[in-house]
Amino acid sequence: DLYRKVFVFRKDPSDAYVVLRAKLERPLQNFTVCLRSYTDLTRPHGLFSYAAKAQDNEIPLFKPKPSEYRFYVGGRSVTFRVPEGRGDWEHVCASWESATGIAGFWLNGKPWPRKGLQRGYTGGAEVAILPGQE
């Protein structure tokens, strides 16, 4: 349970990270991640990665520029264009459902148009989760 926990990366995120290990009872078919982020980075950076034993970065959430979020599932991605931040905390949620292939995205509680992504795909069950890192 990471509720009310904060990770502070004092160095460049490329060499600072946290790893959470999980072993699911069956392959992943639905996924939702929510997080709050606060940074002054303007360069591309990862916010979250679900890395399976068979595939690194199986489900990453990436921010390539201040006005864009990219959500990947199994090597394919959808992009959500957002207003550029004002230096405040950003609350982000991304979800995906295998049966429909629907990917959802919310920024600060506001839903963005849903998009199609990897219908029928199943994710790995033995995983490493990296918050704040790709």
Automatic annotation (TrEMBL):
Keywords: Acute phase, Calcium, Disulfide bond, Metal-binding, Secreted, Signal. GO terms for biological process: acute-phase response; innate immune response. It is found in: Secreted. It comes from the Eukaryota. Gene3D superfamilies: 2.60.120.200. Disulfide bonds join 34-93. InterPro entries: ConA-like_dom_sf, Pentaxin_CS, Pentraxin_domain, PTX_dom. Residues 3-134 form the Pentraxin (PTX) domain. This is C-reactive protein.
